[in-house]
Design brief:
Shape: globular
Structural class: alpha/beta
Distance between the termini: 35 Å
CATH architecture of the largest domain: 3-Layer(aba) Sandwich
CATH class of the largest domain: Alpha Beta
Number of helices: 17
Radius of gyration: 23 Å
CATH topology of the largest domain: Rossmann fold
Number of strands: 7
Order of helices and strands: HEHEHHHHHEHEHEHHHHHHHEEH
Largest sheet: 5 strands, parallel
Strand order of the largest sheet: 2-3-4-1-5
Helix content: 40-55%
CATH superfamily of the largest domain: P-loop containing nucleotide triphosphate hydrolases
Oligomer: single chain
């Protein structure tokens, strides 16, 4: 069946070689991975499938955490929520009878009582209590970050396990604030802490190449040479066909081609279209085109508008111009009545944020064809 959530198990198409390599390395070494690729291309699904595979290993504990799922952009929120996720993952090893995220809402007296019953030594208990209940106005964030990222190492050592940290959209940690944006210094601190770990492997992902370069690809980046870097590409046409035929018994070749062209092989869109059409008896190209129009009109605002609205007004104007066919700074400048130099600055910002790419000198294209189609439909 098609799923709008990250896929796991039998519905996982392609990526077998990467999954096998990652599983082997994470079990048998201390080498982590860095995955980067466009939004909705399947990085989270890879992490979730790795989690599913490794959870079968008795002496391995997997902690999955998405920075994009944080309730706020405060560093304090990350520290508390990450700590809770680590505890939840170690729940059975610690005899924790509560869902760890509920501890964030617990009264301090109940929190202390629960922590005191954990099957770990007193120093770790004290650390957990501080990480879950510290006063933000008096917080020593350097020490809290250090305790937060040392917690998985201490728990792994205490329980004689190996801990695998899967941190989705890791570069977004640089946007957290403790009064001001923490920036790259937080990534460097995490790298310094992780250097001494003997029981923890860290794997990270990111959707924006520019920020992933800052974290792990550039020679001056904090994690340079420390992680195996893999770019996650959209599915090839043969794999889109495999996914569709696996779940749809009556789909025509033309319909498969149409879905591939519409989605550009991005798994999220293939899954979404599959979900729309899966109850149809005979799936023709016309059925697929109707589903595409329905997706753009009914789902587009939900999926795309939030991201679009977070951009600056001039960035939005540039994207609208690109979606209408202008591909050069001069052409876009004419559309939005601004200078070509100013447009070049906005294009660089959009490139760094992962919305567009420069295909050749002076020529730009939007990275997500479905997002582009939504914009054409809305502003065309």
């Amino acid at each position: 069946m098609f799923s709008l959530r990250p896929v796991k198990g039998s519905n996982f198409i392609n990526r077998e070689e990467l999954l096998n390599d990652m599983t082997f390395d994470l079990i048998n070494s201390l080498t982590g991975y860095a995955l980067y690729g466009k939004r909705r291309v399947g990085k989270t699904s890879i992490f979730k499938e790795i989690q599913r595979k490794l959870e079968k290993e008795e002496d391995v504990v997997v902690v999955y955490f998405s920075v994009w799922d944080l309730m706020s952009n405060k560093l304090s929120s990350f520290i508390k929520e990450f700590t809770a996720e680590v505890l939840e993952s170690y729940k059975h090893h610690l005899s924790l009878g509560y869902r760890a995220r509920n501890l964030l809402k617990a009264h301090i007296s109940l929190l202390k009582d629960i922590i005191r019953k954990l099957n770990i030594n007193l120093k770790i208990k004290d650390t957990i209590e501080v990480l879950l209940s510290f006063d933000e106005s008096e917080a020593n964030y350097d020490q809290l970050v250090e305790d937060c990222f040392n917690l998985p190492e201490k728990l792994a050592k205490e329980t004689k396990t190996k801990c695998i940290l899967l941190i989705d959209e890791f570069p977004s940690l640089m946007n957290l604030k403790d009064g001001q944006k923490v920036g790259e210094n937080l990534i460097r601190k995490i790298r310094t802490i992780h250097e001494d770990h003997e029981h923890v492997i860290i794997c990270i992902s990111g959707s924006i190449k520019h920020t992933m370069d800052m974290v792990t690809v550039d020679p001056a980046s904090p994690f340079y040479g420390q992680l195996i870097v893999k770019e996650i590409e959209p599915l090839e046409k043969k794999h889109v066909k495999e996914l569709l035929l696996k779940n749809l018994s009556r789909i025509s070749p033309d319909a498969i081609n149409e879905i591939y062209e519409f989605s550009a092989g991005i798994p999220f869109y293939v899954q979404f279209l599959g979900k729309i059409i899966e109850r149809k008896k005979n799936i023709t190209i016309d059925v697929v085109k109707d589903a595409e129009e329905s997706f753009i009109k009914e789902e587009g605002d939900i999926i795309f508008k939030k991201d679009f609205d977070t951009l600056g007004s001039k960035e939005r104007e540039v994207l609208i111009s690109l979606s209408q066919g202008s591909k050069t700074p001069s052409g876009i400048a004419k559309d939005i009545q601004d200078s070509a130099n100013a447009v070049s600055v906005y294009l660089r910002y959009l490139e760094e944020k992962g919305y567009i790419s420069r295909k050749e000198k002076g020529q730009y294209e939007m990275d997500d064809p479905v997002f582009e189609r939504w914009m054409k439909n809305r502003w065309g």
